[in-house]
């Protein structure tokens, strides 16, 4: 398929005797948002870690636009276009929201992340950072050190940083977890906007059914590390494998 941006082929990882991801073969197309679901311990986070390069595969391949990136490290995969939502540990906690965002915009533009450059009047970079801040409704917190942000605003900043990076593959891990009811729509609208661009692929690990329903074009189900179902949301949710895997308990129908 020509518009497949990312694919995994027989991708597996074993921890001791335990196979956490078991020969997962799956392709992800541009313009498609795929929700990855499965019971606790099914291997969703581990599959993400294998794609982003946080952990090394025991077997199989990860390919980006057909190119084998299985042996590349996290930062190289990131440079090539694999974008996983940042975690606070990747940021400069003492720097402000705006400065962190500006560093990512600068890095993306290939101007390095030298702090000295922050002193320079790079208006274009600043303007782009401002525009992204406004998209995620974080302007009021622009000057706040990242370490002082509320949980909901930290999550919004993670999305903002990913948008600044603008990867080919956007990877979100429960992007609205812990957000208040009025904060979540901002993030969901942004993700919907990314999808509408149709030139990126989006992977979403998510437990909330309402989020999956509103955003996903496709659901893949992992169960005991293996791909147990793959298809349009309505079809997959109604399938016997999902009903059995969840036994009506683990998906959040809220
Ligand atoms: N570094 C590791 N060392 C050993 N076992 C691990 C490691 N990482 C994950 N596992 C195991 O692999 C399995 C899959 O875990 P993973 O976190 O990927 O599941 P998950 O589907 O993301 O679960 P959850 O919904 O609870 O986040 C689990 O049995 C877990 O204990």
Automatic annotation (TrEMBL):
Domain of life assignment: Bacteria
Record-annotated ABC transporter domain positions: 6-249
One GO molecular-function entry: ATP binding
SUPFAM superfamilies: P-loop containing nucleoside triphosphate hydrolases
InterPro entries: AAA+_ATPase (IPR003593), ABC_AA/LPS_Transport (IPR051120), ABC_transporter-like_ATP-bd (IPR003439), ABC_transporter-like_CS (IPR017871), BCA_ABC_TP_C (IPR032823), P-loop_NTPase (IPR027417)
Family annotation (SMART domains): AAA
Coiled coil: none
GO cellular component: plasma membrane
Key word ATP-binding present: yes
Keywords: ATP-binding, Nucleotide-binding, Transport
Pfam family, one: ABC_tran
PANTHER family, alphabetized: ABC TRANSPORTER ATP-BINDING PROTEIN (PTHR45772:SF3), CONSERVED COMPONENT OF ABC TRANSPORTER FOR NATURAL AMINO ACIDS-RELATED (PTHR45772)
Protein name in the entry: ABC transporter ATP-binding protein
Species in which this protein is naturally found: Limimaricola litoreus
